[in-house]
Amino acid sequence: MTAHEQTIITKTNAHSMRLLLALTLITTVSSAPGESDVALLGQRIQPPVQSLFYKAQHNETGNMWDVWLYHHEDTYFLYYLANAGPRRPKGQPWNNISLATSPDGVHWTEKGPILKKSEEATWMGTGSTWKSPTFDQDGKFYMNFSEETGDRQNIYFAESKDLLNWTRLEGEQYRFVQDERWYKKNGRWDCIWTLPKPGGGFYGYWTASPLSENSKFGFGESDDGLCWKALEPPKVSGVNRKHSEVGAVEKIGSKYYMLLGNYSPYMVTLTADRPEGPFRAAKKNFNVLTGHTYFCRFFPHPTDGMLVCHFTRARNNQVSFAPLKDVRIDNEGTLRLGWWKGNEKMKHHSVKVEKPDDTTKTIAILGNSFDLKRGTILEGNLRLPKDKNANRSGLYIECVNNQAAGVLIDHAGVAELGPMQADGSFVKVRKRHNRYQKGVEKRVDREMTFTNPARFRLLLKGSLMEFYLDDILIESFALPAEASGRIGVINSSDTLGTLKAWK
User: Fold this and answer.
1) Which of 126, 223, 263, 356 could be 201's S-S partner, Cβ–Cβ 3.0 to 4.6 Å?
2) Of residues 27 and 246, more confidently modeled
3) What is the spatial distance between Cα 455 and Cα 383, in angstroms, rounded to a whole number?
């Protein structure tokens, strides 16, 4: 354990004791939903501080799914949909919203469930968090979430004054139902993302099932953030996917950008000139987030502009919260995800990079055995091939059980990722319907020009990795097995003299 981590844990423990005393007093005089749950969690041993990839630890939380962030008074609040219980034949019993907090957006401490589904509901859906329009007077925060009861999915609301203790709002006025003029009666109805409306109130965008084939999501407005009115859904062009889920919408510059999902593994970007649309597919980097990851959401950072959060998923379906990304928009208006400078706090200790014994091989294996239970960051310069006929350069990642994975970059910066053999070639990968074909598992083209050599960052922990070129996210990728700690450089001997590493 680093001194930095120990300091964070000590401070967190002290804070938790103060919080526990306060919550004990609160629960003595109140039975508001959620407060006793948090107090019970506070009686357990304080969970460890995690960085790089955060993963829920307690059975009361279970595995995470959709994530979103809120920042208030120097604290990052990470909310996520979760399940506590075994998988069902038709999927996960999503039954709670849980919380982790951080002082810096990098080091996370689990707090546990803050809202649980009602007894009559089959499962719970995700949401978002915003301030009351009269926050200066009432100090309230609001959260929306959905529940499926029978064959209907409806949206509900909760309120809090500290972002930790949440109370579900009861009453029909706090149940937002499908407007059958424009939406299917028993269709999706989930996860409102709010935007301030000029003149007061909010616009809202949510996952829905519009009657029109030219629309993909729900749209509406609210004066107070609790009572919502559905409006005609915006028209959408350039999106052929039948199923869509709203991640987030924000105005950046003069345009409105939407992050839209299609039930994993793709998040795409739409743009509009007005909040009511029409929305159209981005001309470049349409698939803004791919791979073993999903559901990215905007996060307006108090000092660093617009960021994005999302989760990443190992091949055993264990889900973790990925490092934050910042939003990069070029002169053409193309949105890409990039390295957030706050992630530099993940670099706790530098590690001396040991040169390979033999640098003449196609794959030059470094002499290090990196500690990948805690995580490693490896950076350096990667020389791109001269042309399309030259051997591609990249990185080789050894995994346990005689497995490996790699990333190869061509002359144009197009990346291929997948399980790899010891000679640097990709192995057969499983496709749909249990058919196998020889070839790469993932191909990613960010449709931009990179420098040569390009600066790369490799983030590696357990069986999860992220790869950046020139600080642009190429891919969040799940390895075929736990990484062993051995890393190699492929067809780029110049890279060896530029490498730096941290744990």
Assistant:
1) 223
2) 246
3) 9
| CA distances for 313 relative to 165, 205, 317, angstroms | 28, 26, 6
Q: What are the Cα distances from residue 225, in Å, to 94, 154, 197, 220, 445?
A: 25, 16, 11, 11, 39
Residue type for position 330: D
Neighbours of 453 (CB within 10 A): 17
DSSP secondary structure code for residue 497 in this structure: G
* CA–CA distance, 209 with 178 (Å, rounded to integer): 9
3-state class of 434 per DSSP? helix
d(CA 129, CA 108): 19
For the residues 418-441, what does the mean pLDDT come to?
Answer: 72
- For 293, counting Cβ atoms within 10 Å of its Cβ (0-12 exposed, 13-18 middle, 19+ buried), the class is buried
C-alpha R_g of the chain: 23
The three-state DSSP-derived secondary structure of 258-299 is EEEECCCCCEEEEEECCCCCCEEECCCCCEEECECEEEEEEE
In tens, the pLDDT along 442-498 reads: 999 999 999 999 999 999 999 999 999 999 999 999 999 999 999 999 999 899 999
The Cα 141–Cα 132 span in angstroms is: 6
CATH of domain 347-502: 2.60.120.200
For 492, the token pair is: 């780029």
Measured at the CA of 345, the angle between CA 340 and CA 346, to 5 degrees, comes to: 95
In contact, 115 and 164? CB cutoff 8 Å: no
CA 27, 33, 38: angle at the middle one, nearest 5?
Answer: 60
Q: Which amino acid is at 166?
A: W
Indicate the domain borders of the chain. Answer: 1-116, 347-502
Dist CA 476 CA 242 (whole Å): 25
Dihedral class, residue 174 (left if φ above 0, else alpha if ψ from -120 to 50, else beta):
alpha
Between CA 485 and CA 464 the distance in angstroms is: 12
Q: At what angle do helices 35-42 and 3-29 cross, to 10 degrees?
A: 140
Q: What percent of the chain has pLDDT over 70?
A: 87
Over 70: is that where the pLDDT of 19 sits? no
CB-CB contact of 422 with 404 (8 Å): yes
Q: Which amino acid is at 309?
A: C
What's the gap between Cα 134 and its chain centre?
30
Q: Token pair of 318, please?
A: 């264990």
The structure tokens 């490498």 sit at 499
Q: How far apart are CA 99 and CA 79, in angstroms?
A: 5
Q: How confident is the model at residue 264 (pLDDT cuts 50, 70, 90)?
A: low
Kindly tell me if the per-residue pLDDT of 220 is higher than 50. yes
